[in-house]
Specification:
single chain, GMP Synthetase, Chain A, domain 3, two-stranded antiparallel sheet, 6 strands
């Protein structure tokens, strides 16, 4: 019997049992992917937020409802997030600056993907941390230079990840999450924004 025929007659490797891991309901994750694959219209989502001015540069955003998976949904609670500028930027310092929420959104989006992807691949995570920085030059925002953009000129995010897999596999998990991140996509590819005004 040749080596090839021995390999071909070898029993197939048993499939890994899919079970919750890293706080992720992995069976539900795979079921969702399967359901959306069979009915792509379920993939259409719309998220909503309402923002209200409070005083000076201080405002409050409320998020409670969104649409998707064929219907309207409510969060388990209404979430409220304040935004403000630091006193050095003529604000009251009542909350993080709006641009700081972009740092949070980028890190949180990629982090969520890491949790899901690691669980889907059967990798148990020990710890994952992300450090995010963004550089901005206020000459544009303050109207002092037409050649300087108003927003971040660059952002950097660094992940430290530990788990029961090789360093290469852990890097692949982070890279796949970046490649699937909605926030990373918006920040690196842009998105059309329509603005309307009622006065």
């Amino acid at each position: 019997m040749t080596q090839a025929s021995i390999e071909n007659s070898s029993p197939a490797k048993p499939k890994r049992e899919v079970k919750p891991l890293n706080g992720v309901d992995t069976p539900a994750l795979f079921a969702t992917i399967s359901a959306v694959g069979q009915a792509p219209e379920l993939a259409k989502f719309r998220f909503r937020a309402t923002n209200e001015w409070l005083s000076g540069t201080h405002s409050r955003t409320t998020m409670g409802m969104f649409s998707g998976a064929g219907g309207d949904h409510s969060h388990s609670q209404t979430f409220r997030y304040d935004g403000d500028h630091h006193p050095v930027l003529c604000g009251q310092g009542m909350a993080p600056a709006p641009v700081e929420y972009l740092l949070h959104a980028l890190a949180a989006c990629i982090m969520a993907g890491i949790g899901n992807i690691a669980a889907a691949r059967g990798v148990k995570l020990e710890s994952v941390t992300a450090s995010v920085e963004g550089d901005i030059d206020l000459l544009g925002l303050l109207g002092l230079s037409a050649s300087v953009r108003n927003g971040f000129q660059g952002m950097r995010i660094k992940f430290s990840i530990k788990g029961d897999a090789s360093a290469e596999k852990l890097r692949e998990i982070v890279e796949q999450s970046r490649n699937r991140s909605a926030v990373f996509d918006v920040l690196t590819n842009g998105v059309p924004v329509d603005l309307s005004i009622e006065a």
